[in-house]
Write a structure and sequence with these properties.
By secondary structure, the chain is α+β, with helices and mostly antiparallel strands. It is built from 6 helices and 6 strands, in the order αβααβββαααββ. Strands 1, 2, 3, 4, 5 and 6 form a 6-stranded antiparallel sheet that branches. The radius of gyration is 17 Å and the shape is globular.
């Protein structure tokens, strides 16, 4: 185990991974991880975008992951199911990257694929128009905690089109991975 952990440490160092977390994303965990990341963003406007994207992605895991765990909140013994997933924040020579992954239901797969394709193929003005349309929409998607604005908001903050992948796992479910990249300098 020590050798495996050392290899993981070396790999994370080589890839300049600032933060990696796998597990239940409760509001408390989100706040703690966000605080760690926010401390890096005090002076850098680009890193503030990384922070905002990180928060949105972890909230998506918290609210929409098909894999959940029950965690206790506060000292009163109340328990609540929260989403399980993985989130990684890293840096390369040219950009910062925020990636998140979680299990999604068969019902979520097609919806997410359609949303991601539309978002991936939209330019900045189309994303703004789509965001405004969704904001004004009277009906939100069943089971949604909002008007489906999170992915659009992530794409609007990113400097490159979002990358996503759906890996089939079982029973029609999939492991959904999304990556947003923020250029260290303005893209050409």
């Amino acid at each position: 185990m020590a050798e495996d952990l050392f290899r993981l440490y070396q790999d994370m160092s080589q890839r300049k991974i600032w933060l990696a977390f796998k597990g239940a994303i409760s509001q408390d965990v989100l706040v703690e991880l966000g605080t760690l990341l926010k401390n890096k963003s005090v002076l850098d406007r680009k890193v503030k975008k990384v922070f905002a994207i990180f928060i949105e992605m972890t909230q998506n895991i918290l609210h929409y992951s098909a894999e959940t765990e029950t965690v206790s909140f506060g000292g009163n013994g109340a328990v609540h199911p929260v989403g399980v997933g993985v989130v990684v924040v890293s840096e390369s020579a040219d950009d910062y990257s925020v990636s998140a992954g979680n299990v999604v239901t068969a019902e979520q797969v097609d919806y997410l694929r359609e949303q991601c394709e539309r978002i991936h193929n939209s330019d900045a003005s189309q994303l703004k128009q789509y965001y405004d349309e969704r904001l004004k929409a009277e009906h939100t998607r069943a089971g949604s905690k909002g008007a489906g604005l999170g992915l659009i908001d992530i794409a609007r903050k990113a400097d490159f089109p979002l990358d996503y992948e759906m890996r089939p796992i079982a029973d029609g479910r999939a492991f959904f991975v999304i990556t947003a990249r923020i250029a260290k300098t303005l893209p050409a």
